[in-house]
Amino acid sequence: MPNIKIFAGNSHPELAQRIAQRLGTEPSKVVLKKFANQETCVEIGESVRGEDVYILQSGTGCGEVNDHLMEMLIMIHACKIASAERVTAVIPCYPYARQDKKDKSRAPISAKLVANMLSVAGADHIITMDLHASQIQGFFDIPVDNLYAEPAVLKWIKENIENWRECVIVSPDAGGAKRVVSIADRLNVNFALIHKERAVANEVQRMTLVGDVDNRTAIIVDDLADTCGTVVKAAEKLKEAGAKAVYAVMTHGVFSGPALERVMGSCIEAIVVSNTIPQHEKIAVCPKIQVIDVSSIIGEAIRRTHNGESISYLLKNIPL
∠ CA(254), CA(15), CA(311), 5° rounding? Predict the structure, then answer.
């Protein structure tokens, strides 16, 4: 059987180190730099002939989305033409995931374009986490494993929320209802929904709460925290409706623009995100941020993929 080779891009070397540690190995050697004209240069530092290669690059939230995407494409291509047996792109946070449909005239479906680019570069398999829309899996003609942070979220809620059996799980929009219902069912608690209307992208005009949160702890669950305008307004709405405390749990903490200032000035007790995107600098600015480690889930998915085992266990459980 070929050996595992894990290559890390510049987006999140710490996560790659944690995953490699879990697999009892070290990240493989690669030199990533830029030429004077800002072109990306990749030099794979060891043989990958006949090996099972995993390239880890988080696609968004690090300020240099396009650079990191290009870096990953070049690394995939370099390994493929160096005769790697199989190349798997491990993308904890999929780039351009919110551009997944033609929602207005002449709008691009950029998530599909990224899928095409990954396939053309030579990726044989994709491992990602909590896609913004599950149908993105259908943009690929190669296998896609969409892992869920849900088991880690459930563990955090049970360990950190007092009287969690009395809490209400809240979706900040209709699109996240399925995710919220799944978590509420597994905790055996109630759920609520906030309907929002947008005037322009990233700005919410009006919100309506459907459900009862009076004198209960409300936990807002979503896949992505970007500018945090929605989650902060949702928290205010929940407080107005009588919620005792409001927490927010998001898989991907992008925190762009005024997000950190908004969170610090809000009534949210804590905003919990996974480490699919690096958070050290953001925690220093905003102590309300707490981080869930998902490296065990991604690492176990890599191990099972390498050994030809099923990964369906990981969709409901955290690996030991």
Answer: 100
Describe the crossing of helices 150-160 and 177-187 by its angle, rounded to 10 degrees: 50
**What pTM was computed for the model?**
0.94
Query: In sequence order, what are the beta bridge partners of 268?
Result: 246
Q: Express each pLDDT in 64-91 by its tens digit.
A: 899 999 999 999 999 999 999 999 999 9
CA dist 297 to 27, 225, 316, Å? 17, 21, 11
Task: Give the 3-state secondary structure of residue 191.
Answer: strand
Q: What is the DSSP string of 134-163?
A: GGGGGG-SS-EEEE-SHHHHHHHHHHHSTT
CA distance 80 to 119: 11
Strand-pairing partners, residue 168, are: 190, 218
- CB-based burial label for 284 (10 Å; 0-12, 13-18, 19+): exposed
Bridge partners for 274 per DSSP? 292
Three-state secondary-structure class, residue 190: strand
Work out the angle at residue 119's Cα, subtended by the Cα atoms of residues 303 and 127, and round it to the nearest 5 degrees: 25
Distance CA 63, CA 95 (A): 12
Q: How many Cα neighbours within 13 Å face the side chain of 91?
A: 30
The Cβ of residue 191 has, within 10 Å, a number of other Cβ atoms equal to 21
CA 149, 151, 153: angle at the middle one, nearest 5?
70
Residue bearing tokens 């990240």: 27
The answer to whether residue 1 scores a pLDDT higher than 60 is no
Which token pair is 98? 């919110």
pLDDT in the model for residue 320: 80
47 DSSP assignment: -
Give the pairing of strands 245-253 and 268-274.
Answer: parallel
Residue-level pLDDT at 164: 95
CB 314, CB 301: distance < 8 Å: yes
